[in-house]
Amino acid sequence: MLDRNTRLKLQTEATKEFLSLSNHQLKGSEVLVFIPVHNEEFTISKVLEQVKQNCNFDILVVDDGSTDSTNSITKQLGVEVLKHPSCLGSMVLLSGLSVGQALNYKYIIKIDGDEQHDAKDIPRLYAHAVETKADMVIGSRHLKKYSGQLWSIQGLGMRFCSKMVSTLSRRKVTDVTSGYLIWNRRAVQTTIQAFNYGLFGDDSTILIEQYLFAAKKGLRIEEINVVMSPRQYGESKSYSKKKLAMFPFNLVRSVFRVLLINK
Q1: Which secondary-structure segment (H or E) carries 184?
Q2: pLDDT digits (tens, 9 = 90+) for 198-230
Q3: CA distance 224 to 220
């Protein structure tokens, strides 16, 4: 993968180009739903259909350098697409949040394009954020009870990371590896600030760094219970076998990186 500075430069250029367009349709709602995709030709149509059925919010697809037919499918479905020139990994999050901030959305919701997240939970995330005035609301698989394979490497890693973040942030978080969440404007600004501080360099630890940094900045983090489905097509980019092997080292580095920031 490209180094962080190169990826950041390409992401910035792609976002600026998208925002320079005068004919995009992202103007009618206080909420932006953004969907990151990378080679999701088998699932993106259904995900978009379900999102449209469950909310009237604006939709942005951030295509992270797909090389299959994902881009042509999204264009045919009439949604806004910000296309990265190549796979930029964690920069997909920065693209979605930067567009939302530039267009002054009050809330931004992220739902993955691989059909693991249930679009029926979008209104629930939004309602909880509004009712509780939380800065971030996480869709947790484990809020009521742990739902993963406890003794698998990934399951043990999830539990350890959640307990670690809960201890360091002094607030209980049950699913720090969940990418299904909503930000308000304050949380969006804080997350973009984290990018500017040099965080979020590795895909496998980006969510953990995000929640640690948000807690360090005093943001209010809430959770609601959701059900996530196993991935049916493709392979996770963030939790490949190689990245799972490197995960303990990346985790230690990420924690120290956040804790050493004193701004």
Answers
A1: strand 181-184
A2: 888 778 788 888 988 898 899 999 999 998 886
A3: 14
In angstroms, the first-to-last Cα distance of the chain is 29
pTM: 0.88
CB 172 within 8 A of CB 207: no
Break the chain into its structural domains and give their ranges: 4-259
Write out pLDDT tens, residues 8-54. Answer: 999 999 999 999 987 777 877 999 999 999 999 999 999 999 999 99
Listing DSSP states for 16-75 in one string gives HHHHH-S---TTS-SEEEEEEESS-TTTHHHHHHHHHHH---EEEEEE-S--SSHHHHHH
Q: Pick from 102, 107, 137, 126: which is nearest to 219 by CA?
A: 137
Coil/strand/helix, residue 100: helix
CATH of domain 4-259: 3.90.550.10
Report the C-alpha gap between 197 and 184 in whole angstroms. 20
The answer for residues whose C-beta is within 8 angstroms of residue 78's C-beta and 6 or more apart is none
Contact in structure between 249 and 256 (CB atoms under 8 Å): no
CA distance 212 to 176: 9
